[in-house]
Amino acid sequence: MNSFPPSENEVEIRYKKLDREAEEGGYHLNPDREFTKNLVKGLLVNEKRFGYLSCPCRMSWGNREEDRDIICPCDYRDPDLDQYNACYCALYVSDAVLQKKVLVSSIPERRPPRSERKAVAQQEPVPGTGKQLPFPVWRCRVCGYLCARETPPLVCPVCKATKDRFERFM
Amino acid sequence: MNSFPPSENEVEIRYKKLDREAEEGGYHLNPDREFTKNLVKGLLVNEKRFGYLSCPCRMSWGNREEDRDIICPCDYRDPDLDQYNACYCALYVSDAVLQKKVLVSSIPERRPPRSERKAVAQQEPVPGTGKQLPFPVWRCRVCGYLCARETPPLVCPVCKATKDRFERFM
Amino acid sequence: MNSFPPSENEVEIRYKKLDREAEEGGYHLNPDREFTKNLVKGLLVNEKRFGYLSCPCRMSWGNREEDRDIICPCDYRDPDLDQYNACYCALYVSDAVLQKKVLVSSIPERRPPRSERKAVAQQEPVPGTGKQLPFPVWRCRVCGYLCARETPPLVCPVCKATKDRFERFM
Questions:
Q1: pLDDT tens-digit profile of C108-156?
Q2: Residue B119 C-beta-side C-alpha neighbours within 13 Å
């Protein structure tokens, strides 16, 4: 991890690690290996520069606190996968893309402008105050896995059941 | 994925995928490889015919909505593993079966008749209405994993702790 | 699993299994292989003697019920990883140790004395009685994973996001 730019070998090792982690959790890297390795290279450049995997397709502030939501995988990956079958960079794609049932098209930026992000961070929910939950909780009907997000995941990370096997739990 | 019936190679590839996914989540395929590959072949036949992995041991309606609960892994696998050490097809077995501590015997059909399934779907819980949770929530004492099901899983999918390491959480 | 003490081959097989399970869940075994294999050997000795993986660095009562909290991975691993970058035995270490950013030092025993453990077991929370939750619930901002523990995990077991990507959910 000393050379700059990252060596081909570093890119290859990280690519394999990210691919394995993605598959274990029910996610998929873009099957276009050259495209994907180029993004991985961008991630490694950012890691060397900033100390964390800042999104290669977005401007970094060089400050982990400010960039926390765009450390890859970013906070917006899963909603984008749900709505557009790919994340903003198209580093992660849905199973439907992998199966060539849909094509990846242009994905609009979902990240709110900086002023709104700051406002959201300040109105952080206060747990235990009887207020409503900040996200719905989904339950996998197969294995009981619970997660809190706008919509269920495309695939259950535990048993790989598909999105339509989830039900609203809380 | 074009030939019909599925080729031996297609069966082998899917078998390996299902085996890997099972082990990652703390599940196990039946160690009798010939028996298991025959079930995988049945799954692939159904996938080609209906477009989804309908249970090879049950009658399919050929309609994803009607068959949603018997798409493999089915909604009944985990309760059957808990009670009988195997799912209805014996495609999935418990660790106790793998260790030859127990034998798989005949497993009664847990799936309710069609009329009852429809009734259950209509009385779907309304979250946020202060009603009781539809399933108890279990917590792994080791890693904090939460899941909602009748009984805890045989093995924690995250840290592989056994069932007796879970406690009721909600 | 018949010889006593465990053969080198048995140790090697179990070592690989534990290593794979650790990595899949976002944990890491100690990279010092000789040290780690010695602990694995101790675990296997305990498994043969008691029937479960009692912690090799603690006294066992030879009774699963009494030792439940020290079956490896023990109930104390994750708080120790969080605070000391390693579990009591140093079988499991944090990513920071793996990256040689911190060194493992001596870890105090976190397990309460037997009398306190018994008292805690008796005041088990009664779910559904409107009482406060026994642990805070954390949510991964990336994938929505939920877990209940004193602090968030060092790494999300589903999407491998780091601890600072978690927020308090309940």
A1: 999 999 988 877 666 555 555 556 899 999 999 999 999 999 999 999 9
A2: 5
- Round to whole Å and give the CA distance between C159 and A90: 17
Q: Considering only alpha carbons, which residue of chain C is nearest residue B132? A: C128
- Nearest CA distance, C143 vs chain A (angstrom): 7
User: What is chain C's alpha carbon radius of gyration, rounded to the nearest angstrom?
Assistant: 17
DSSP per position, C121-142: HHT---TTSSPPPSS-EEEETT
The residue with greater pLDDT, B115 or A126, is: B115
Summarize pLDDT for A26-64 with one digit per residue, the tens: 999 999 999 999 999 999 999 999 999 999 999 999 999
Q: How confident is the model at residue A168 (pLDDT cuts 50, 70, 90)?
A: very high
Cβ separation A145–B157 shorter than 8 A: yes
DSSP symbols for C21-90? HHHHTT-EE-S-HHHHHHHHHHHHHHHHHHSS-B-TTS---S-HHHHGGGBSSPTTHHHHHHHHSB-TTS
Does A1 score more than 50 pLDDT? Answer: no
CB contacts, 8 Å: B75 with chain A: 141-142, 165
Residues of chain A with C-beta less than 8 angstroms from the C-beta of C162: 71
Residue B75 pLDDT level (bands cut at 50, 70, 90): very high
**CA dist., res. B39 & res. C158, Å (int):** 29
Q: Indicate the helix (H) or strand (E) that contains B146.
A: strand B146-148
For residue C138, the chain B residue with the least C-alpha distance is B144
Q: pTM of the predicted model, to two decimals?
A: 0.87
Contacting chains of C (3 CB pairs or more, <8 Å) are A, B
Pick among B29, B68, B155 to test the A interface (most A CBs inside 10 A): B68
CA dihedral B55, B60, B65, B70 (to 10 degrees): -20
pLDDT confidence of residue B126: 52
Nearest to A169 among B21, B75, B127 (CB): B127
Name the residue in chain B with its Cα closest to that of A165.
B68
Asked if C84 contacts C104 with a C-beta cutoff of 8 angstroms, the reply is yes
Q: With beta carbons under 8 A apart, name residues in chain C contacting B170.
A: 127-128, 133
pLDDT in tens, C90-102: 999 999 999 999 9
For range C78-94, the mean pLDDT: 97
Which residue in chain C is spatially nearest to A132 when comparing CA positions?
C170
Which residues in A lie closer than 8 A to residue C141 (C-beta atoms)?
Answer: 69, 75
